[in-house]
């Protein structure tokens, strides 16, 4: 849609300019053609959609997260491997396009409400642009006009975070009040309720950031932002007309959201939509199933342990859970687990035939191999072939934004819990604990994730957010706003291996799948993957080990330190941009 709309816009510019070359300059004709009709405004604002994240950026968005085990440690987390020279993201081209539109959408022949609608669209995208910059860099220059190359403001300093975020909120409020579109069944257009949903995301981030990042001394202003977050989410919940997808029951309804060709309109609020007719696809299968193209991301066991039992009790309350083999630990759990990783009777289609598909150790290092975004037919595995839409916003996030904001404000009621976290857990097949907010703290969750949180309800809201939104690109930002960067140091652990040289049938289909060894046996079983977990391989430290040497959890890359530093809460200003404009300064520690 974006490609063709921009093409039409350029054609409109060209035709108008060419037909009036003997009357007015081409630039003037182009400007008049755009800003003198509603169609021109519509075509111009369509160009803003290019600023939304691509499908690949979304499905790869949690490649750097506390629960993501991958082929290599990200440079960002390795001492001395990342700095201003490697930093990216300081691009302002998109902003000039938006500001130019706002500055020139003044033609009095266009009705005021029409101009306000399209200005609302522009200001929404400006808010999206600036929120992304603030999350990444903190203080940034505030620019609300189209700058020329000779404009001195190009070389100004950075504005305080508070000023920029107040401006972001003003843009979002304007967009909420003036965008007229309330529904779009394609789920590819910005509507009033998408704006309210994004506002809830922005305000929750800023409110919790100010509350927990105490070095900024903005704690007194956190409540205002949390109240705005709850109010915006409540608006979507009461007026947006969305609901949780429950088609297919608890065993399918969750994953359908991520594998459906057409966005499931009941829950998906905004998506990047594929179009085979225009050869527009995404690369989800290629990235998530390839041992070479992707980062080979898998979940770690510490996080998998947070998935509840099906009765709503903590899995870690099971006696002996520490030594449960993979085949047993995945049974009787929150149904989202089996829709997020390969477990049990999961199958893939190969040449039209459904075949058992246990975790593949040429891809996964932990055994917890993701399936959330990938399609089940192996046809899609090689190249950008995927025809599933990728969601950018869905109703479940709004419910979680509401629940967390209210929990932080200490105003979350049992009724609030039931319609947010409770509804999500009920959709996941959990049979208890969804009617009233919890009062008992889960010690595992507290000790391993949030030791400073003593509110049982807030702990459970955070658990739910991690599980429901896993691999959707929220986790690292959540860690930043909660000031829990130390979570990035978590051991990269996998499932429990009971003994060396013991074949494991991971999906219990009667065929062995994997053997872990220190001395490779002279005779190997056909169809079985053999994994070396000896101390060294050819004199080099082996990155794949067992915690207790001859048994225990799998571990990966424990020999490469990941040490969180306070400076990592913000990215550095890129060195090349600071050389052009020394007034930008640098973020602390970089």
TrEMBL record:
Keyword terms: Cell outer membrane, Membrane, Signal
Glycoprotein recorded as keyword: no
Compartment list: Cell outer membrane
Keyword Membrane listed: yes
Domain RagB/SusD: 294-590
SUPFAM superfamilies, per the entry: TPR-like (SSF48452)
Domain of life assignment: Bacteria
Similarity remark: Belongs to the SusD family.
The protein, known as: RagB/SusD family nutrient uptake outer membrane protein
Originating organism: Runella salmonicolor
Lineage start: Bacteria, Pseudomonadati, Bacteroidota, Cytophagia, Cytophagales
